[in-house]
Amino acid sequence: MDDQTGNTLPTDVPVDPAEALALAVRVLDEVSPRFIEGVGAKGVQYKGTRTDFATELDLELERRITDALREGTGLEVHGEEYGGPPVNEGTLWVVDPIDGTANYSLGIPTAGILVSLVHDRQPVLGLTWLPLLGLRFTSVAGGPLRQNDEVVPALPDVSIRDVALGLGSLNTGARTTYPPAYRREVFEQLTLDAARTRKFGSTGVDLSFVASGRLSAAVSFGNFAWDNAAGTSHVRSAGGVVTDLAGEPWSVESQSLLAAGPRAHVEVLDTVTQLGDPGNFFEAGRRRATPDPESPRQWLEEGR
Q: How confident is the model at residue 102 (pLDDT cuts 50, 70, 90)?
């Protein structure tokens, strides 16, 4: 598949992308020491389930990043914890202050900070900071992917039979269109097809590792722009393909994500397509999972 969506820098972005990227780099470098200092922070705000939570560091870092980006560019920000304007309208920043919060809270190093500038439902630039791994990824539409300021070579066109692939959460599907039974079937089939599978517990890690050639592909059943936009920018900049699980070009409105080099993308999409409609997979004693709105954030009532 040769999808060129998002591979060209738009001409009508209201800020200079290079200047916006430079600002975001400075902001993430400034908050990284605090990110490292807070490793092991416990959940203080729960979003409907005991496994979906925010720490005080999530809240603190999002406030700091949001304030700096808004002040530096005049653009609005939509963050995982405090929300913001609709992500599918106009131009705005999208921020995940701690991607892989459960890992972070447990002291597992596969956690990071994700920032993307989204314009007309597509990422214009992306940043993934993995301070506990010593990795920083940046990308701009139409430009190369950079890791720690060095240009990363274009993705090799590998097969999932040769290089491991990453898989997203297999937990409850209450907030997505993909029931747990369907996710497990995808996992089982890809485990049979692929050289190896990996679950890092962080979409940002998965997508950065695809973009930098560490993984052949990544599958995410999540639909949140703060998880997916930065990594989508990275994979496209490296020459990869990013769609949803139906093979449609990814946008912030997509309900899932499949990122890979061209060959691996075809292989994974073929496997997923053969499984049929996710709605045909049911849990014993459960109704079909349907999309829910974003979880309530009680701390918003208390202000920032």
A: confident
Looking at the structure, tell me whether residues 140 and 211 fall in a common domain. Answer: no
Give me the helices (H) in the chain, please: 17-37, 56-73, 101-106, 180-193, 203-211, 225-237, 262-275
Q: Does 117 share its domain with 191?
A: no
Residue range(s) defining the domain that contains residue 24 = 17-151
Determine, yes or no, domain membership for 285.
Answer: no
* pLDDT value of residue 240: 97
Residue 302 domain-assigned (yes or no): no
Amino acid 224: pLDDT? 94
Q: Which long-range contacts (CB under 8 A, 24 or more apart) does 107-113 make?
A: 107/39, 107/40, 108/201, 109/133, 110/200, 110/201, 110/202, 110/205, 111/201, 111/202, 111/205, 112/202, 112/204, 112/205, 113/28, 113/31, 113/32, 113/35, 113/61, 113/65
Q: Do residues 117 and 237 share a domain? A: no
How many structural domains compose the chain?
2
Query: Half-sphere exposure (CA, 13 Å, Cβ side) for 12?
Result: 5
Radius of gyration in angstroms for the set of CA atoms belonging to the chain, rounded to a whole number: 18
Query: Among 68, 119, 87, which residue's Cα sits nearest to residue 225?
Result: 87
Structure tokens at 39: 């490793």
Report yes or no on whether pTM surpasses 0.85: yes
Specify the CATH number for the domain of residue 124: 3.30.540.10
